[in-house]
Amino acid sequence: MIWSIAFAPLLPVSVLVGGGILALAVLALMAFRRRPGVLLRALALALLLLGAARPQLVAEDRKALPSVVALVADRSASQSLAGRPADTDAAYATLKDRLSHLPGVELREVPAAATDNADGTRLFADVARALSDVPADRIGGVAIVTDGRIHDAPKDVAGLGFSAPVHVLVTGDPGEYDRRIELTASPKFALVRSTQRLSFRLVDDGRSPDGGAVPVVVRRDGETVATVTMAPGEERSVDIAIPHAGNNIVEVEAPPLAGEISPLNNTEVAVIDGVRQALRVLLVSGEPHAGERTWRNLLKSDASVDLVHFTILRPPEKQDGTPIDELSLIAFPTRELFDEKIDDFDLIIFDRYEKRGVLPLLYFDNIARYVADGGALLMAVGPDPLNADSVYDSPLAPLLPAIPDGNIVETPFRPAVTALGARHPVTAGLPGGDVDPPRWSRWFRLVETRENRGDTLMSGPDGKPLLVLSREGKGRVAMLLSDEVWLWARGFEGGGPHAELLRNIAHWLMSEPELEEEALRLSGEGGRLAVERRTLKETAAPVTVTFPDGSEQRIADLAPLGPGRFGASLPAPLPGLYKATDGTLTALAHVGPANPREFRALVSTTEPARPIAEATGGAAIRLRTEAGGSLDVPTVAMRRSAAGTYAGDGWIGFKASEAYEVAGIETVPVYLGLLATALLLLAVGGLWWRESR
């Protein structure tokens, strides 16, 4: 029981205080005038005020509240290396047992999940959440079993949020060493066909037994682009070409160091997102026709396309006497387009074009060379019979997968997607093409061909080729053997998917990765790895997936996902670079953040958490004092808050709580009834007796 004095006044406190002040003033005046009986009057007034204040003895039944001690086990990825899990489990179990048997302690185990993200290990954030409902004066301290790689340690006690000791018990051996690559400059985005500079440093943490120069390999999308020789601490730069849109995965890999903790951080990954500048398209139209505006409108509506369009309205042989100064048309810049700047274009389209003497044969040679070197050509064929003005009688002929034979079919038909086209990404999934007959309008003209050696994706009447794609050298060629796609654009009989079709053709010709017909793709999200194989074949070959730690998993049977698409899903337990191959194609995917903070440094250390531990009176100590030594878990004790330090040789301490809760209260009046009356009468009687004298 805890005793104390309390008051339960009969009058408001303000009245009692005012009465007391008035009594003091009167007594002071009497004393100043030397009037007799001042002390007796003071005693009488004091007893009167004391009776009005009603003093009481209060007995409290107090129950002491235990100190809350947080115990944290670091389960981050770096703690899974070099025997650290076993040390963590053993130290955690020992501390838990000792704290559980310590009187006046409420143990709170803090779940610290693996934090393999860009922010690294954030144990103090977990502690703050776990202790958010505990008053600051009841927090006895925190004990953390970790490798010391904590990335959210507060700089001072104010950032901690409470005043109690923090103890950091570090796993791992004192003599650990590790090799790593550190990226110092890496772009996030880059224009396709540009060159970007990547800078990196070779670092050997700890006392490395080998500090000599080693070869460091730089790869882009699995292909070696450079090998540089570096010594630890040296920084180098390499220029990386960005060949395609989308993710360009660049790896910088150093050889492993014998006896190092882990080779996981010997490779760093930079994911550079390739962004196309405006795609340059050259559209050359021959005789004006209804479909010419369809091509122009479609290409102009695409913000990513920079269109150059010429229509040959006036051939050189046309002599009608019109004065030159009255002609509003500019001269066709054939030399500039097809000689000087032809390689600047991503795609050349001939729309119902005939030679008619505008382009010399030399320029057709340039176009053929442009395609063979990686360019793209689209022929939109009209009713041009095979004659002397046809482009099919030119150096382009060897590149064309189909040659018109001079016959034109003029009969109503609905364009149909072939079996091969149903598997090709250009025509697979076209709106309205999933039924027979397709839900789109009819066309009325088709140019017959011979020597068809390309991939026929769409057909006309009697299965005759309508859309043919072909790879020629390093480039690509497409032929649309009808000029009536404009009927779909105008909404004739409900129209059809002209925009999707023409856009897919153009983007396939310009080698957009999403439209590759033979592709292996790898992607990771939500702890799963998705493998997708796109092929024109009926089945897909087995795929072997290599994990970041070097282990492999073979997927023998990819499940059908749709026409021409096969896939599988498997767990992706580790962050890092995954590789998939079917023997022909290879795909890479990086799961998790590139260069996660968790793996940047793996050598265990007491340094990051030492300042906050010592500022709170705690300690940052190793559980092993020498390499291969036994685990030395300190004993635990409780100390008063005035202790100042909570750690010593072989022990750690926690702050004993001084908080309590009141279980019951008893009150005993000390100045009431006969006692108060007797004392007051005695004082008044004494005063009367003094005055009577």
UniProtKB/TrEMBL annotation:
Superkingdom of the organism of origin: Bacteria
Chain ranges passing through the membrane: 6-31, 38-57, 670-689
Keyword NAD: no
SUPFAM superfamilies assigned: Class I glutamine amidotransferase-like (SSF52317)
InterPro entries: Class_I_gatase-like
The entry's keywords: Membrane, Transmembrane, Transmembrane helix
Entry protein name: Glutamine amidotransferase domain-containing protein
